[in-house]
Structures are given as C-alpha cells and as structure tokens.
Amino acid sequence: MISAATRIRIQNILNRIENNESVTLEERIFLNKLSSVSVVISQWVVSALGSEASSIDND
Q1: Nearest 5°: CA angle at 57, between 3 and 34?
Q2: What domain range is 54 assigned to?
Q3: What 3-state class would DSSP assign to 5?
Q4: What is the pLDDT of residues 1-58, one digit of tens each?
Q5: In which element (H, E) is residue 4 found?
Q6: Among residues 25, 24, 58, 30, which one has the least CA distance to residue 44?
Q7: pTM (2 decimals)?
Q8: How many CB atoms lie within 10 A of CB 23?
Q9: Number of domains in the chain
Q10: How many other CB atoms are there within 10 angstroms of residue 35's CB atom?
Q11: Spatial CA neighbour of 28 closest among 10, 40, 44
Q12: CB–CB of 17/48 below 8 Å?
C-alpha cells in the first residue's frame, strides 16, 4: 500500500504527462520504479501514456 502523499505525487506527475507538460527525469524514474512493483500504478501509467505509447512498446 502506498501513502496518500505518494499517491498524490504520482497522480500529479501522471496528470502532467496526460497534458503534455514537462516531467523531470527523476519523476519518470520514480514512476518506473513504483510501476515495476505495483500493478495498480503500472495501470495508471499505461492509462496516462495512452494507446500510442503502448503501440510503440509493442512494435
């Protein structure tokens, strides 16, 4: 389980990704680490990136 503060931080980063706003490398690494250990966070990241990113990964 993640803390409320971590969840808010994740959602903030994902909202910026969805809106094509800047996200630092540190934030991307943070998301990557958490998504590798949490299926829920991984699904949030996939949803935020959209179908285009998923198709790129599968090519």
Answers
A1: 15
A2: 4-58
A3: helix
A4: 889 999 999 999 999 999 989 999 999 999 999 999 999 999 999 898 886 665 555 5
A5: helix 4-18
A6: 30
A7: 0.80
A8: 15
A9: 1
A10: 17
A11: 10
A12: yes
pLDDT on residue 1: 80
What are the DSSP calls for 6-55, one per residue? HHHHHHHHHHHHHTT----HHHHHHHHHHHHH-HHHHHHHHHHHHHHHHH
> Exposed/middle/buried for 45, CB within 10 Å: 0-12, 13-18, 19+?
buried
pLDDT value of position 55: 56
The number of residues making up the chain comes to: 59
The structure tokens 């680490």 sit at 33
d(CA 48, CA 46) in angstroms, rounded, equals 5
Q: Which token pair is 43?
A: 């699904």
